[in-house]
Design brief:
Length: about 180
């Protein structure tokens, strides 16, 4: 796979969609139907990912690499629970028990994902779906976070890799 280039953030936030930047993702997603056919991945048309503009390669040691950073910007459960209910409906899940889903940040807060954008949050099944569970993605997120903070992987390629396909993100940035 060709090496990914680091890119600068000029807008306040943007989404990543299969290698492309979309500027201006502050508005909520208007779609009413998201497909489950991509599981264990999200439907990219519904949640392409969105970044926190305060997190750049130059700021990682004062943001994401500081212990407690993610919890300091995590949205309230009242916000994420309401969004989870809405998005469970958009995905058409037969199981509507909110306890069976994690309102997951596609690009995790620990990698500079936008904390509240509906384009970066989706109802990821906690049960096995598409051969994986939410905890499998958590393991990938942690390995990417550690590599970014250690300086072995640049922030932008890590963000791009996890937004594109978390199941291949580690190999996409040269980790196993």
């Amino acid at each position: 796979m060709p090496r990914m280039r680091q890119f600068a953030v000029a807008a306040s936030s943007f989404a990543l969609v299969a290698g492309a930047m979309i500027v201006g993702t502050g508005a909520a997603h208007a779609a009413t139907t998201c497909s489950q056919s991509y599981l264990p991945l999200q439907d990219r048309a519904c949640q392409p990912g969105a970044l926190n503009s305060a997190v750049t390669q130059d700021t990682i040691h004062s943001t994401i690499c500081v212990p407690g950073y993610s919890s300091s910007i995590r949205p309230s459960t009242s916000y994420t629970n309401a969004l989870k209910v809405q998005q469970i409906g958009e995905y058409g899940y037969e199981d509507t028990d909110t306890a069976d889903y994690e309102e997951d940040h596609l690009i995790p807060l620990s990698l500079g994902g936008h904390p509240k954008s509906p384009q970066n949050l989706w109802p990821e099944p906690r049960y096995e779906a598409g051969g994986s569970k939410a905890t499998d993605k958590d393991t990938v997120e942690y390995k990417l976070y550690k590599a970014v903070c250690a300086g072995t992987v640049q922030l932008a390629p890590a963000q791009q890799a996890i937004a594109t396909d978390w199941t291949t993100a580690l190999s996409a940035v040269g980790l196993s």
